[in-house]
Design a protein that fits this description.
The complex is a heterodimer. Chain A is mainly beta. Chain A contains no helices and 11 strands. The termini of chain A are far apart. By secondary structure, chain B is mostly beta strands. Chain B has no helices and 11 strands. In chain B, the strands form 2 sheets. In chain B, strands 2, 4, 5, 6, 9, 10 and 11 form a 7-stranded mixed β-sheet that branches. In chain B, strands 1-3-8-7 form a 4-stranded antiparallel β-sheet, with no helix packed on it. The chains are: A mainly beta, B mainly beta. Chains A and B meet through strand 5 of A and strand 5 and strand 10 of B.
Chain lengths: 111, 113
């Protein structure tokens, strides 16, 4: 079946360093992937998305990389700030056009 | 602020009871999605409506039902509540209903005692 998995449940990063959050997916036919950020007490918030015809997409301080060969997705956050502390979810567009969500990675920023 | 409004923010009730969660989507969005988030399950898709019609169903229990009204607000009804139904329930909305960028509300925290 389809599934989206995250490599690490918790990631601790020094403030100012770059963060890399990884995600594996299982459906090679998926053509849309998306990252959400969920801060404590809030709903998930869209960060960035990417379609399968792209390998890389950049936003403000964030970059998403897609490696279709190994079915791997990553979110890179440059110059991590305290406000980046949150749980990050990757999601994959499944065969029924519904999003399949990963379990989430908690990003902790060390001062 | 995402523009999606959910009420109430918190709900405490007892097993066997019935509750209704309400969601108002962003202005102009036609589709509403309901999600359940519990500690050990992550985000679980329940159901989606588009312009008043049910579009997709996820892992929604038969004890749960939802509807989207002509003014596009939506309600999620949870009945015969069990302890395991305690969770955060999110509503999200999008313009076209193709699971493009979703805008989430702040959620309703349901506690079943």
């Amino acid at each position: 079946g389809e599934s989206v998995g995250l490599h690490l449940p918790t990631l601790s990063v020094q403030e100012g360093d770059n963060s890399i959050i990884n995600c594996a997916y299982s459906n090679s036919a998926s053509d849309y992937f998306i990252w959400y950020k969920q801060e404590s007490g809030k709903g998930p918030q869209f960060i960035i998305d990417i379609r399968s015809n792209m390998d890389k997409r950049q936003g403000q301080r964030v970059t998403v990389l897609l490696n279709k060969t190994v079915k791997h997705l990553s979110l890179q956050i440059a110059a991590t700030q305290p406000g980046d502390s949150a749980v990050y979810f990757c999601a994959e567009m499944g065969s029924n056009y519904q999003l399949i969500w990963g379990a989430g990675t908690k990003l902790i920023i060390k001062p | 602020d995402s523009g999606v409004t959910q009420t109430p923010k918190h709900l405490i009730t007892a097993t066997g009871q019935r509750v209704t969660l309400r969601c108002s989507p962003r202005s102009g969005d036609l589709s509403v999605y309901w999600y359940q988030q519990s500690l050990d399950q992550g985000l679980q898709f329940l159901i989606q409506y588009y312009n008043g019609e049910e579009r997709a169903k996820g892992n929604i229990l038969e004890r749960f039902s939802a509807q989207q009204f002509p003014d596009l607000h939506s309600e999620l009804n949870l009945s015969s509540l069990e302890l395991g139904d305690s969770a955060l329930y999110f509503c999200a909305s999008s313009k076209q209903g193709a699971n493009e960028k979703l805008f989430f509300g702040s959620g309703t925290q349901l506690s079943v005692l």
